[in-house]
Amino acid sequence: MQKRKRRVEHWQVISLYLFLYDLIAVNLAYLLALWFRFDCRYSLIPQSYLNAWVQFIPIYTVISLVIFTGLKLYRSLWRFAGYSELLRVTAATVLTGFLHWLGITTFFQSMPVSYFLFGMIIQFCLTIGIRFSYRFVLLERSRREKLMKKKQEKNILLIGAGDAGRLILRDVQRTEFDVGKVQCIIDDNPNKWGRFIDGIPIVGGRDDILANVEKYEIQQILVAIPSAKAEAKRDILNICKETGCELKMLPGIYQMVNGDVAFSKMKEVAVEDLLGREPIQVNMDEIFEHLKGKTILVTGGGGSIGSELCRQIAGHHPQQLILFEIYENNAYDIEQELKRKYPELNLVVLIGSVRDSRRIDDVFEMYKPDIVYHAAAHKHVPLMEGSPDEAIKNNVIGTYKTAYAALKSGCQRFVLISTDKAVNPTNIMGASKRLCEMVIQSMNQISQTGQFNLLPQLWSHTWNPIEEIKENNLKTEFVAVRFGNVLGSNGSVIPLFKKQIAEGGPVTVTHPDIIRYFMTIPEAVSLVLQAGTYAKGGEIFVLDMGDPVKIDTLARNLIKLSGYKPDVDIQIEYTGLRPGEKLYEEKLMAEEGLKTTPNKLIHIAKPIPFDVKQFMNQVEILAEASYTNSSRIKQLVSEVIPTYHPKKKLDEIEARRVKKLIEERETAVMAGGVK
User: Per-residue pLDDT tens for 508-558?
Assistant: First the structure.
């Protein structure tokens, strides 16, 4: 058998070098001692002393190396050398010095006392110096790296001298080299100005932010005012975004309640933080009672709205949650998230299309859902302009088939997710959603009156007989919930703007005066859930989206939050209105009125009367036309919806009116006159 070659370790090589070094050091130490004893002149050293040194030094060398080895001076990790190593080197020096005195005096010649003292001191310095020098080099290198890092660290301005600000300050100070250094604090309370927290000065209020950013060369601003009102946060953030500094803030007051205040919990300031609107509050008890113990189906459950519906429903203890989605990747992602967050949830994830009546029928027959949230739809305006037949197939016919199955199975409530683009639509997507609302209103009337003979048989797929609905004699409440754009949803401008900014621009805005209503996805969904608790059948609930937002302002704020200057670092280009796009969206038709609900942010639109029988005949015609990919589909839709004007554009008078309203609002906001 071939013997394995023994590998020489690195520490063994270092030990060999130390051994050779000590061989020289112990000899040189006592020679230098003689040299120092006689005024550093070699010629003055008596020959007898030199002879004694020469004769004894080989013996002393062996003695010293044996003692050094015995005290493990060749097996220590000198990069971690400490008190123990110092003690052992000292003991080795004293012991070898004593043996040197005893040996050379006994067998050779008595030497001057200074010879022994100098010899021990020099030997100690030589042996300890080489061993501790390695650690010294490492410490010095580490110190220089820290100094370099300190020069490169961020200068931080902290906004908020309350409890949250104090906790953030101390957290930053504990991790100074990793985070940065707080240079000053801003707080609107004049009583705190000129005072200090942990040695950091409170330099003034919000009006002093810009001056102190320049004075202290600030690179990062931390906003720690979780209890401040949304308007105050908005005003402060609007000042901060002009500095070009990186912005971080605590998301909300709940972190103070949970004791979860730390630098790591701060988030990047998002553009929705600049909207300056208080978070929407809903009656969670009403929603809980409405959803608890129910079997709930969410169509389009993998989309931005549908997935948030599933998240919020899952937290309200339904008996079963059925997620129906055509895109398997989205379905898989939300399935894994819900299983992780709600392991006890009875979750069923199904793949299928709302256009497939056979599949929809099977789902309703097997699971018998009590409540349906119908979020499945094509929503992209320009894409639907190029594929209008698909908008009708998926949105209108898909809604009809799903509502038909709900009616047949005896579902208690059916909630359609609609859009403000359904009001006076100028695009086929908005028109298709208006048709969906009309489908829901028709279905509700048929359900309440039992006029099932009005339901057309759409033979694009196999259908079960209408007689089954008559036999069940069950009534379903059909309602729609209408709202505007949601920040961060699929197709939202925010992800597009962020991508364009990351690529260096330009950021594309269709028109400098275009405005939209905005709401966050969780807010919109929570209102949808509460609107469902108010349903009696046939209503179109309209969510209050707050004040409209100018898209151009939104783009410029996002550029500033990214640390750039609009039209300087990142250009803004106006591309013109896309096909079917309006300068502004409406929440109500002129013919509709508003009724109030217990939640002031949820209103009920007065239904516009129409002939259900005639409408159902038109739905049948639209289905036939869409499935044959008719080129006249837009014309057919305009005959059903008088308010749909596919070729109509806003006239100049209306455009100027909208622009004037926007300018007046922006002036009022700057003056602090609008909350």
Answer: 888 887 877 677 777 788 888 888 888 788 888 887 766 677 788 788 878
- Of 239, 231, 261, nearest to 249 (Cα)? 261
Task: State both tokens at 565.
Answer: 């200057």
Q: Which of 307, 366, 315, 370 is nearest to 343 (CA)?
A: 315
Task: Identify the DSSP state of 278.
Answer: P
Mean predicted confidence (pLDDT) in 46-68: 77
| CATH class in words for 284-488+518-545+586-640 | alpha beta
CATH homologous superfamily for 155-269?
NAD(P)-binding Rossmann-like Domain (3.40.50.720)
> Which regions of 89-208 does DSSP assign to beta strands (E)?
155-159, 181-186, 196-197, 200-204
DSSP 3-state of 2: coil
- Give alpha helix (H) positions in 374-427: 381-386, 388-391, 398-409
Domain ranges, ordered by start, for the chain: 10-150, 155-269, 284-488+518-545+586-640
- Of the candidates 448, 138, 417, the one whose C-alpha atom is nearest the C-alpha of residue 305 is 417
pLDDT digits (tens, 9 = 90+) for 343-395: 999 999 999 999 998 899 999 999 999 999 999 999 888 889 889 999 999 99
| Burial per residue of 473-482, b for 16 or more beta-carbon CB atoms within 10 angstroms, e otherwise | eebbbbbbbb
pTM of the model: 0.64
